[in-house]
Structure formats: C-alpha cells, structure tokens
Design a protein that fits this description.
Keywords: Aminopeptidase, Hydrolase, Metal-binding, Metalloprotease, Protease, Zinc. By secondary structure, the protein is an alpha/beta fold. It has two domains: 3-86 and 236-426, Aminopeptidase; 88-219, Aminopeptidase i, Domain 2 (Roll), CATH 2.30.250.10. Helices cover 28% and strands 26% of the residues. The chain has twelve helices and 20 strands. Strands 1-2-3-13-4-14-18-16-17 form a nine-stranded mixed sheet, sandwiched between helices. A six-stranded antiparallel sheet has the order 8-7-10-5-6-9, sandwiched between helices. Helix 7 (238-253) packs parallel to helix 12 (413-426). The longest helix has 16 residues, at 238-253. It is globular, with a radius of gyration of 22 Å.
Length: 431
C-alpha cells in the first residue's frame, strides 16, 4: 500500500473514531468485512485452523487473531499491541453550569492532557450512552454530535496582561466549555439534550430514559495532510489511533499461515488498570482460551509482542529536549524505543529482530532514548511483557505535540511501520 492511499484511509479512520468505542466499532466493521468471526466471552469457543476471530470487551478494547495453519505451541504467536484511548476532557455526571446566561458543562481531565491547545477550538461531543426501555431492559448506544457544539474561550490579553508569561490553567475553573446561551429562568438538563441526540441518531430505538453516559469533548476540525509539500498528517488522537490503524491493517494483510494477533487496549493513558486495560486479564484470557492452559506457556515462549505507540519526534524549536544522539525525525522511519529501567520493554533481541526485518525490506528505522535528566513515559509494552512473559519490542511513529488536541506525524512513517508489521505477521520464526 503506497502512502497516499494509506494516509487517506487513516484520515477516514481518525475522523470516524472520536472515542475508543467508535474506534473499536470501526475496527470491527473492517474485521467483519474481511471474514473474521466475532466471539463472545460468555460463549464456548470452537476455533478452526486458518480462521480469523475477534473479541470485544466493554466496547472499547479488542483482541483480533488469526488462528493460523501452524500450531501456536510450535510456531509461536506474532502479536501487535496498541491502545484505543487518548487524553481528553470527559463530561462529569452532573455537569450543568448556568452562569451569566450561558450553559457550560463541567469536565474531568482524562489522562495527561496538554491543556492550552483546548482553548479557542471548535469542540464536538461523542461517547457511549446507556438507556433503559419501559420493560427495564438496558442497552448501550454510541453518540456523536459531529458538528461543533462547544467552545472554551480564552481570556483576552487585556484582562490578563501576564498570560504570555506565567499563566496557569485551573481545570475546575478554566475548562468548562460553553454550549449555548440560556434565558434567565430557563433550566437546561444535559440528559435531555443527550436524549434528543440519541433519538436523532437512533430513530428506531425506543427508550424511557438515560441512566448513564461516558461522553468526551473532541476537536471538530477534520484530520488533514498538511505542509507545503504534503509531508505531514495533522489530527486529534494520533496517539494512539495511528498505531491501532497500522496494527489492524497489518493483521488483515497477513496471509494467515502463522498464528498472529492484534490487541487494542483501553485506559492506557490512565495506567491500564482496568478489566479491559493492559494490566487486566483480557489478552491473557483470550490467548489461554485459544491455545489451552497447558499449551499456552509453550506458545508464549516462542512468541513476540510489538507494542506500537507513538514516539517523540524532535521539535525544531526545542531540539535540546532530546538526547543529542537519539533525536528521531519525522518521515525518517519508525522509532525503536529503549529504556533500561523498563519503562519500555525493548531488549537487544527484540530490537535486533525489528532491525533485521526492516533492513530486509530496505526500510528506515530510528532509535529513541530519553535524556538522562528527564523522566521517561511508558506504554502497554512493559505491562504486557510482565503479564504474559512474552518477549516485547516498543516501537512507534515519531510525532510532534503528543497529548495535544491536535498532533502531527509524517506521511511516510505510518506506512513504513505497516510494511514491517505485515512482514512480522508472516514470518515463520519470531523468537
């Protein structure tokens, strides 16, 4: 797949995936179209060699795998992992704030959000809503307002002369977005506004009331290819939906001869400690049911996980924030991420395999190590390695503006990583 086609499909995926639930919905549609079979965790599984399967938990995490025509205990499993969540602003349970004739919503900061870029942006709302019908039956639906429905205005420089020098952001006070103007005696309930949207998007759904929701604000500006020479992709949620797209496409492109798997976990941005997060039992449970409890340790010993999560590309205005010998550049190849304190799970063997695959294909790669005087971030890589005991590599596409409302990556790097992961999925021996 050449990079123009790859990036157009990526932009479409990003645009249709404002939340983890929407991202997983998009991925399951791709899997269904490719002939993968949906499995329910509550059911008994009967798996056939050479078939594709997928399992969804909480609607926001997914494990998809090809059973392969080779046995997992002899061939090992080629695994790729990513995460479906991104830092954002989530609506509180009782969010209504009516002040000075404006309706605002209280928000909770999810993950390590870079807050300043959220001001003066066109914001929309999306998420999952739980409803109950007149018979007491509960159901979940996805909602996406799609248009700009909210705004967080900056305070004018005339009213804060130090804004460019020392302004700090109070999430409780400064971040509630403005939705609309309201009359002096008008009382507006967010549940009512949300119910109207549910009815617009799901006109055949009959429900009595809303009992819960998980709604997030997101940037309403569509993803785009930018740059005078179209060198960059700019979008919300590149961290880490870009890796989700790459991992899924690599699995779909695999020939199915070797056992292969793609996992997309929710809640990485807040520590992964949840039923569907990487610290939970989801992946291990699927692998055990696939292989069998007795066979699983043998399969894992011959397997490898590639944890794909974006890397910090050198910012030309802040080049000194990188180690001078480890400053990845956009459009110069995916980045092998190394941290000997195990914030990344890469070791010499897993890095060597990636370099070998990449070199065989004639594709570029880079290496990142954080400055020795700075703290290092982490990924699902060390968590998965520790949970499964699987050899793991941490790698990612270099980007700017990580955890901003709009991030930037190179148009070449995503398709480069896709090509190497496709080769990895088809490789007869991985460990």
């Amino acid at each position: 797949m050449e990079h123009q086609s790859f990036n157009q499909q990526l932009l479409d995926f990003l645009h249709q995936s404002p939340t983890p639930w929407h991202a997983v919905q998009q991925m399951t549609r791709r899997l269904d179209a490719a002939g993968f079979v949906a499995l329910e965790e509550a059911d008994t599984w009967q798996l056939a060699p050479g078939q594709g399967y997928y399992v969804v938990r909480n609607g926001s995490s997914l494990v998809a795998f090809r059973s392969g025509r080779q046995a997992p205990e002899t061939a090992g499993i080629r695994m790729v992992g990513a995460h479906s969540d991104s830092p954002c602003l989530k609506v509180k349970p009782n969010p209504e704030l009516q002040r000075k004739g404006y309706l605002q919503l209280g928000v909770e900061v999810y993950g390590g959000v870079l807050l300043n870029p959220w001001f003066d942006r066109d914001l929309s709302l999306a998420g999952r809503v739980s409803v109950v019908d007149q018979d007491g039956k509960l159901s979940d639906v996805l909602v996406d307002f799609r248009k700009a429905v909210a705004y967080i205005p900056s305070l004018a420089i005339h009213l804060d002369r130090e804004a460019n020098n020392s302004r700090s952001i109070n999430p409780q006070k400064d971040l509630p977005p403005v939705l609309m103007q309201v009359g002096e005696d008008e009382e507006v309930c967010f549940h009512d506004l949300l119910a109207e949207q549910v009815r617009r998007e799901h006109p055949t759904l009959s429900f009595d009331r809303i009992l819960g929701y998980e709604m997030s604000f997101y940037d309403a500006q569509p993803p785009a290819v930018v740059g005078l020479r179209d060198e960059f992709v700019a979008s919300a949620r590149l961290d880490n939906l870009l890796s989700c797209f790459i991992g899924l496409e690599a699995l779909l492109a695999a020939d199915g001869e070797q056992p292969s798997l793609f996992v997309c976990n929710d809640h990485e941005e807040v520590g992964s400690q949840s039923a569907e997060g990487a610290q939970g039992p989801f992946l291990a449970s699927v692998v055990e049911r696939w292989c069998g409890a007795e066979v699983m340790p043998r399969a894992i010993s011959r397997s490898m996980m590639i944890s794909a999560d974006n890397a910090h590309g050198v910012h030309p205005n802040f080049a000194d924030r990188h180690d001078e010998n480890h400053g990845p550049l956009l459009n110069r190849g995916p980045v092998i991420k190394v941290n000997h304190n195990q914030r990344y799970a890469t070791n010499s063997r897993s890095a060597a395999l990636y370099r070998h695959l990449s070199d065989e294909l004639g594709l570029p790669h880079q290496t990142f190590v954080v400055r020795s005087d700075m703290a290092c971030g982490s990924t699902i890589g060390p968590i998965t390695a520790g949970t499964l005991g699987v050899t793991t590599l941490d790698i990612g596409v270099p980007q700017w503006g990580m955890h901003s409302i709009r991030e930037t990556a190179g148009v070449e790097d995503g398709v480069t990583l896709y090509r190497v992961l496709e080769a990895f999925m088809n490789r007869p021996q991985v460990n």
